Amino acid sequence: MMAKRPNILLTGTPGVGKTTLGKELAAQTGLTYVNIGELANEGNLYDGYDEEYQCPVLDEDRVVDELDAKMVEGGVIVDYHGCDLFPERWFHIVVVLRTDNTQLYTRLEDRGYTGKKLQDNVQCEIFQTIYEEAMESYPEEIVHQLPSNTPEDLEKNLEQLIQWTEQWMKDHN
């Protein structure tokens, strides 16, 4: 059965603006917003704790199992800083948000990131790690990079994704 509403993956390094964009996009399109971190917290979908990064380790299989039925129905915006754990069949578009390193450093510092966790996330952005992961995990034509530095970028990205969603629904219904 074909989904009547598209599934969107918002991905990128922590601090690039996925959650802000995802919540606003859901509010304006009626799609369901799912933050993987919150989903994992609510369902305790963890497989241990990473002492080095001071955070729980996601149980990826349980996350996928938890979301699968919802994804088949369609109309879901998924927000997560990784993307290779999700089945390719789930998404109609994959959006990788990108932020200038200096801004990202400040945003992460403001969140309390320090030391190795801060450095590794900024390096992840510099080396386009998430973008490369997305290009390896999904068909090239559905992967898009968008800048996420300013409130104007947020507005522009939101507008583009609303238009894309409306067009997708016209084309598939």
From TrEMBL:
It is found in: Cytoplasm; Nucleus, Nucleoplasm; Nucleus, Cajal body. Gene3D superfamilies: P-loop containing nucleotide triphosphate hydrolases. It catalyses: ATP + H2O = ADP + phosphate + H(+); AMP + ATP = 2 ADP. One of its GO terms (molecular function) is ATP binding. Its EC number is 2.7.4.3. One of its GO terms (cellular component) is Cajal body. HAMAP family: Adenylate_kinase_AK6 (MF_00039). Broad-specificity nucleoside monophosphate (NMP) kinase that catalyzes the reversible transfer of the terminal phosphate group between nucleoside triphosphates and monophosphates. Has also ATPase activity. Involved in the late cytoplasmic maturation steps of the 40S ribosomal particles, specifically 18S rRNA maturation. While NMP activity is not required for ribosome maturation, ATPase activity is. Associates transiently with small ribosomal subunit protein uS11. ATP hydrolysis breaks the interaction with uS11. This is Adenylate kinase isoenzyme 6. It comes from Cyprinodon variegatus. The lineage of its organism: Eukaryota, Metazoa, Chordata, Craniata, Vertebrata.
